[in-house]
């Protein structure tokens, strides 16, 4: 895992591993996903979005290891009133409410016809 990450004034991402900078191309898929989450949470809090929108929505977290996804979920629960994410069935460490899209009630279809 990387030790730290920061944005330069030119918005270049600098990542440190073993005390040295590494290119983002050297990171694993899970590390890249975690960086994306960190940037999203930082922006959510830095611009007080959390005061207006008490939801963090995350999608496509397929590269994060099972135990890390559980830790990430716990971390986010302390920082947002609601956390909505997609999790693959193999992620056993995440508990929550499962939503089946087949059971959704659709308000309108693509043609604009109400149901």
Short description:
The protein is of the alpha+beta class and 115 residues long. The protein has a domain at 28-97. The chain has helices at 29-46, 49-52, 66-77, and strands at residues 4-7, 13-17, 20-22, 55-58, 82-85.
According to DSSP, the number of beta strands is 5
Q: Helicity range of the residues?
A: 25-40%
The geometry reads as: globular
Order of helices and strands: EEEHHEHE
Sheet with the most strands? Answer: 3 strands, antiparallel
Distance between the termini: 49 Å
The rounded Rg comes to: 17 Å
- In terms of structural class, how would the helical and strand content be classed? alpha+beta
Taken as a percent bin, the fraction of beta residues is: 15-25%
Unreliable residue runs = none
Number of alpha- plus pi-helical segments: 3
Strands ordered across the widest β-sheet:
1-2-3
Average the pLDDT over all residues and give the rounded result: 77
Give a verbal description of the structure.
- This protein is of the alpha+beta class and 115 residues long.
- The protein has a domain of 70 residues.
- The chain is built from three helices and five strands; from the N terminus they run E-E-E-H-H-E-H-E.
- Strands 1-2-3 form a three-stranded antiparallel beta sheet, with no helix packed on it. Strands 4-5 form a two-stranded parallel ribbon.
- Strand 4, helix 3 and strand 5 form a beta-alpha-beta unit.
- It is globular and about 50 Å long.
- The N and C termini lie far apart (49 Å).
